[in-house]
User: What shape does this take?
Amino acid sequence: MRGTAQQRLGTAMKSNASAGFKSKPAAYNNSGAKPAEEKKEKSEEESFKDMEEEVHRLLEDSAKSKVDKNLNDALMKAKDAASKEKKIR
Assistant: This one.
């Protein structure tokens, strides 16, 4: 059951060029500028990920402050983490 697609399926292979596909991706130009299609702003998903990382960092800092018996600082960081988590939801 070997052979070309034309032999197996009875159809000819079609070109992808009409659909906008290229055989080689567009290369950067010599000036080092990025392609125009690349986004400059963060996507919503990326910003949520950054916020989640910040919440995690605040919770870790809060736990360290608790261990160091700095309870006011631990409480403030925990409250800040909780309010940022609510924004994510």
Remarks:
- The chain is about 55% helix and 0% strand.
- Residues 41-89 form one domain.
- The chain has a mean pLDDT of 78.
